[in-house]
């Protein structure tokens, strides 16, 4: 159960897939006044959603996996309506007392603690070795003309915490172009919805004379294929999900610094860098090794353990 944002839904689906579950997706969109109120003040939370939300009615599921502020009150209500039969898993910090859920799975940088809390290094996701291999094989012909080493470049954009400024974007494009000329590397680039058309235009212009592919948003998304085919991964700092997915590959991961930041995001990036998992992107390529992040599988094992105890 999510508000349909891809970053939220992928975390829930990743955990469901790691558990081997055939998940039913529920998208919920709070209506006024509930969307303006904290979850603790919602009355009749199962009826606080707009008409285009999926219905939340019995029979209640055996397991409910939810994330995002929009789902918190409904998750609590479903657990209560099922008389505790539904095992509720809330991903990320719900912002209310953890006792309302069977299991809370926040990232370590959220500084949460409790008897029913399982901490992860980063975000849960859908990246698996099998999925990357399958997608790499499917998209390999489309990238066969790009030379090695192949560098996957994952670009997000401005959000509440970070800003991808025009200056940073131009500097990034110049670094990528210089790196490609110096090393002969090919570039496989994907942008998010937050990147914007102007960012794509800058990259196409500045990288016109180096071997690259920039996904134009049409057809099947090659994101998993880029992760699977890449020798190196460059990713912007704004997305914990993208950085976590990159770090699950075991490949060298370089983080592009953006303007802004917060104590929480800074802790996340500092810990990864201190543990030798990521490095700041300087326009140079290097090789190093680390134990890939395995948060989703570990979280699934914890869910199984608690279900077995119950």
Q: Would you write up a description of this structure?
A:
This protein has 310 residues and is an alpha/beta fold. The chain folds into two domains: 6-121 and 299-309, no CATH class; 129-280, Glycogen Phosphorylase B (Rossmann fold, 3-Layer(aba) Sandwich), CATH 3.40.50. The protein is 35% helix and 14% strand. The chain contains nine helices and eleven strands. The protein has helices spanning 6-18, 72-81, 129-143, 166-183, 197-206, 223-229, 240-247, 263-274, 295-309; strands spanning 63-67, 87-91, 103-105, 150-155, 162-163, 186-191, 212-214, 232-236, 253-256, 259-260, 278-280. It has a six-stranded parallel sheet with strand order 7-6-4-8-9-11, with helices on both faces. Strands 1-2-3 form a three-stranded parallel sheet, with helices on both faces. A two-stranded antiparallel ribbon has the order 5-10. Helix 3 packs across helix 6 (223-229). The longest helix has 18 residues, at 166-183. The two termini are 23 Å apart. The mean pLDDT is 96.
Strand order of the largest sheet: 7-6-4-8-9-11
Percent range for helical residues?
A: 25-40%
CATH superfamily of the largest domain: Glycogen Phosphorylase B
Total number of strands: 11
The CATH architecture name of the largest domain reads 3-Layer(aba) Sandwich
What is the distance, rounded to the nearest whole angstrom, between the alpha carbons of the first and last residues?
23 Å
Large-scale geometry: elongated
SSE order, one letter for each helix or strand: HEHEEHEEHEHEHEHEEHEH
Q: Would you tell me the overall average pLDDT?
A: 96
The number of domains is 2
Nearest-angstrom radius of gyration? 21 Å
Largest sheet: 6 strands, parallel
Structural class by SSE content: alpha/beta
Count of DSSP H/I helices = 9
The level 1 CATH classification of the largest domain is: Alpha Beta
CATH topology of the largest domain: Rossmann fold
* Strand composition percent: 5-15%
Low-pLDDT sequence parts: none
């Amino acid at each position: 159960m999510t508000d349909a944002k891809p970053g939220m839904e992928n975390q829930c689906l990743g955990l469901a897939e790691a558990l081997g579950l055939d998940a039913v997706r529920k998208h919920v969109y709070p209506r006024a006044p509930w969307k303006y109120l904290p979850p603790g003040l919602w009355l009749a939370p199962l009826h606080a959603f707009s008409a285009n939300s999926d219905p939340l009615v019995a029979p209640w599921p055996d397991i409910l996996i939810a994330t995002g502020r929009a789902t918190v009150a409904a998750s609590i209500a479903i657990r209560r309506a099922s008389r505790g039969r539904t095992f509720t898993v809330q991903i990320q910090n719900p912002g209310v007392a953890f006792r309302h859920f069977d299991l809370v799975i926040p990232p370590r940088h959220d500084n949460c603690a409790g008897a029913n809390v399982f901490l992860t290094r980063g975000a849960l996701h859908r990246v698996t070795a099998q999925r990357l291999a399958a997608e790499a094989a499917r998209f390999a012909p489309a990238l066969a003309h790009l030379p090695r080493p192949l560098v996957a470049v994952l670009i997000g954009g401005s959000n509440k915490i970070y800003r991808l400024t025009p200056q940073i974007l131009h500097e990034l494009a110049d670094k990528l172009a210089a790196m490609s000329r110096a090393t002969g590397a090919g570039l496989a680039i994907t942008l998010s919805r937050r990147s914007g058309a102007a960012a794509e235009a800058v990259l196409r212009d500045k990288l016109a004379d180096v071997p690259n592919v920039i996904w134009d948003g049409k057809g099947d998304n090659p994101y998993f294929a880029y992760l699977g085919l890449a020798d190196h991964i460059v990713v912007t700092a704004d997305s914990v999900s993208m950085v976590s997915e990159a770090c699950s590959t075991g490949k060298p991961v370089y983080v592009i610094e953006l303007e802004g930041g917060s104590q929480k995001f800074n802790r996340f990036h500092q810990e990864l860098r201190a543990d030798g998992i990521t490095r700041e992107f300087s326009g140079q390529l290097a090789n190093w090794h680390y134990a890939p992040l395995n948060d989703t599988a570990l979280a699934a094992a914890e869910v199984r353990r608690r279900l077995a105890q119950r």
